[in-house]
């Protein structure tokens, strides 16, 4: 049994989608980031960085794993799935996983901050992070022109990148003119495990159906950014 400490964010979805794809039983512990529950002493004992997600593997000595990329690697290696066994195949998956961890996630995250959350609109910063996010989308598109999935077979690399790229509208970044990326986005969205995973712990998109709800979401996000 896995305990999953998470919230409705791209990094949180990476863990829940992977757990759903693997069919592993897990218990969800939803953290209210705006209330700072990720900074509570009990949680910091599991994740000293005070971020989500974190898993605790109860079947292996209550072993805690933090950092979303590390969680995906741990789950794949524990199950022998979503990760090739050969050295080159494994390296290929890790390369595209690190591409998300070091590029797509940070750039889209900063685009969100400057485009959505900062009360002052600093256009050079908005342009910088939106343009870099779009450039990275182009890299993905070029790769997907030659391969159905990012690392050959479907893997944690696809899960990690999709959980961020699927939120491109919130970051203000277009995917127009990137047909291979769009094909992949549609293929990922059609997977039942992906559909279930992005509803953990709650349907984030349902909170954004009105302007009032969107503003309330932004206000909560501003609190989180400041922590």
How would you sum up this structure, described in words?
The protein is α+β, with helices and mostly antiparallel strands. The protein is built from ten helices and four strands; from the N terminus they run βαβαββαααααααα. Strands 2-1-3-4 form a four-stranded mixed β-sheet, covered by helices on one side. Strand 3 (54-57) and strand 4 (63-66) form a beta hairpin. Helix 1 (10-22) runs antiparallel to helix 6 and helix 5 (123-146) packs across helix 8 (179-189). The longest helix has 31 residues, at 87-117. The protein starts with a strand and ends with a helix. The mean pLDDT is 94.
Largest sheet: 4 strands, mixed
- What share of residues are in beta strands? 5-15%
Tell me the radius of gyration.
17 Å
The string of secondary-structure elements, in order, is EHEHEEHHHHHHHH
Strand order of the largest sheet: 2-1-3-4
Report the count of strand segments: 4
The tally of helices reads 10
């Amino acid at each position: 049994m896995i305990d999953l400490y998470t919230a409705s964010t791209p990094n949180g979805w990476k863990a829940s989608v992977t757990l759903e794809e693997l069919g592993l039983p897990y218990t969800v512990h939803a953290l209210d980031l705006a209330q700072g529950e990720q900074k509570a002493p009990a949680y910091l004992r599991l994740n000293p960085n005070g971020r989500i997600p974190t898993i605790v593997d109860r079947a292996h000595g209550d072993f805690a794993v933090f950092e979303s990329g590390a969680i995906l690697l741990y789950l794949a290696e524990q199950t022998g799935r979503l990760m090739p066994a050969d050295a080159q195949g494994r390296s290929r998956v890790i390369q595209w996983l690190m591409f998300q961890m070091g590029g797509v996630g940070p750039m889209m995250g900063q685009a969100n901050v400057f485009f959505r959350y900062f009360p002052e609109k600093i256009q050079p910063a908005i342009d910088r992070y939106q343009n870099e996010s779009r450039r990275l989308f182009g890299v993905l598109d070029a790769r997907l022109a030659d391969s159905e999935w990012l690392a050959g077979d479907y893997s944690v690399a696809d899960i990690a990148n999709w959980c961020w790229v699927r939120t491109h509208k919130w970051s203000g970044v277009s995917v127009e003119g990137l047909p291979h990326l769009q094909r992949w986005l549609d293929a990922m969205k059609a997977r039942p495990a992906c559909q279930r995973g992005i509803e953990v712990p709650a349907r984030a998109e349902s909170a954004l159906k009105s302007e009032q709800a969107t503003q309330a979401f932004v206000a909560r996000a501003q609190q989180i950014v400041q922590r």
